[in-house]
Amino acid sequence: MSERDPKTGPAPRAPRAVDVAAAADVSIATVSRVFNNPEKVAPAIRERVLATAKAMGWMPHAAGSALARRRTSIVGAVIPTLDNEVFAAQVGAMQKAFAERGITLLLSCFNYDQDQAVHDVQAMLARGVEALAIVGEAHRPDLFAGIQARHIPYVVTYSHRPDSPHPCIGFDNRQAFHSIASHLLDLGHETIGVIIQPTAGNDRVAARLDGVRAALAERGLGIRPQHLCEGEWSIDFGRQSVRAMLATDPPPTAVICGNDYLALGALLEARAMGLTVPQGLSITGFDDIAISRQLDPPLTTMHVDNHEIGRRAADYLLACMEGSRPAAMPPLVPTLIRRGTTAAPHT
Amino acid sequence: MSERDPKTGPAPRAPRAVDVAAAADVSIATVSRVFNNPEKVAPAIRERVLATAKAMGWMPHAAGSALARRRTSIVGAVIPTLDNEVFAAQVGAMQKAFAERGITLLLSCFNYDQDQAVHDVQAMLARGVEALAIVGEAHRPDLFAGIQARHIPYVVTYSHRPDSPHPCIGFDNRQAFHSIASHLLDLGHETIGVIIQPTAGNDRVAARLDGVRAALAERGLGIRPQHLCEGEWSIDFGRQSVRAMLATDPPPTAVICGNDYLALGALLEARAMGLTVPQGLSITGFDDIAISRQLDPPLTTMHVDNHEIGRRAADYLLACMEGSRPAAMPPLVPTLIRRGTTAAPHT
DNA sequence: ACCATTGATGTAAGCGCTTACATAGATCGC
DNA sequence: GCGATCTATGTAAGCGCTTACATCAATGGT
Fold first, then answer.
1. Which of A100, A347, B60, B196 could staple B258 via S-S, CB 3.0–4.6 A?
2. pLDDT at residue B125, rounded to an integer
3. Tell me: domain A6-60, CATH 1.10.260.40, correct?
4. Measured from the CB, is A61 under 7 Å from any atom of strand C?
């Protein structure tokens, strides 16, 4: 007399271990063992239980087992946004590495909002994540304090400062942009512009700008205020920034861009204004996205292996979870790809 | 006499509700109520409990509460890969929409492998997801059977067939490419090439190809085998495909590409071969990624709002979870953006 | 033949939380 | 002022699972 479709039976509720146990005529403990320590169960019984479970569509429910086992097999990834392929690649690689070990990835995007990041981490801790990967280290101190209080392994990704208090997997953003600037300086440029993402609350970007400044300072140079454009990264921002800079006097002979999209915009606009690149203006990018090598001229940029960062971060965390205390990993070194958008200034 | 740092105390174990209850001198039920039905607790006590919990760094542990409440507040997203910005955008939008309602997103990438997808869905069901979003409907039947057996709401995204048995949020891939082909036919093209992603196990792509074929057939035309290139999407595949096609006799006067990256490659190669676009060759893309409008000439393509797909999928699932049975949503309609890469064939 | 092992299975005590129900003051109408 | 009614809090029974420990049968050494 159920109100449900009689064909589906009166109890649409999910089967539990005890149901499988009854159906297979064993105890609930045996059912559990079949799934967790199969070698402790006689083959005949094991097969019977497996068959029954399959027939009933039963699998151990994670919440129950997490509670009993005191392990959730969940780890969290906290990134700014998936709209940036750089982070998407990292997460994709982590997800893959974890999935291979039966670990589930919880994802959260804080949209460059520090309060949101703290909130997200709290939520993940409440969910019992066993480890955490977090992009960047420019976070509110209570974010890290909360993690440390739980004695949970964590790693900061996409950045690597030599003297960071956190375990980190990434590269030295300052060093990377120091290299880019040096490349340009070595070519003979002295008036260099910078188009870069917002530095507020973003340690990676701030470090990049700092790297450029340091390289220039070493040769007694600096960035003129009118040659520094900071804003949301987009092709359009790259375009408008270059347009503005070239209207100054003297105009820069080279511009360093915070990523390839900005550089792409800069390149398009420079050409639209009738400049030849690199003779009239040298341009550098960062990330080495797929189109960069296809541009005309192909973009000089720095290549970062984001999948590798994700994979390493996952490996590090997995090692920690298994109890080892892995040595600090050396930073990745992004490589400068000299293509067609940099040359000596036309004098 | 603990072996641990005496400052951290002998019990580094996470506090539980009962500890908070004891410290605040109330019962464990009251602690729970403070977090779940705060209005049922006297303000003075509520504040005391809140303060104690905060001081002890306690939050209700999700596994325990999921068990007791029989709700996990988790939903799963199953996508092919995060390396495609199209899916990354969808996931990002879903994550945002869910986070706003206190729901956590579990992510899994099946890498276009049907067995992997089934496995991932199983794992998610075991984790007690309350709803599931899955890209595409070309999956093993037991994937959907497994979900339906659990009476869990789900939605297929990125595709929308009028006669699909599944609730779906997306657009009609067949229809979309029918439109593209018609656009070209209307311009007078009769020899049309196609460069497309692998169709095997990918219903969306297969539908696209089908749409092109149908549009051509309506005018008594077809795709010549030598004018159909199917392979992993990349700029390079676009380039090599165009090169191969243009070596045939007669060469196509237009090529339809499965996405903007392929189209970008096609455009670059056509120009490298000395053809002018669109006079010598018309090219269409799909997705309308950021660079497309910046190309020279700007790419004619179709714009799809992937964030919108993600948002709608999340809204639909949330509605289901709250018990309503939302009406089937109308498909999104991608819009054809006629820019500079299509024109009448040069006769 | 008998006892000590061994190995397979069952019993039952939680894991940390929520919530129906019980309880006990406080409040109010008459 | 007394019982009826409410409201704030506590008690205890699970949620579905794992696992230490108990049990029991079979094995093997002497």
1. B196
2. 96
3. yes
4. no
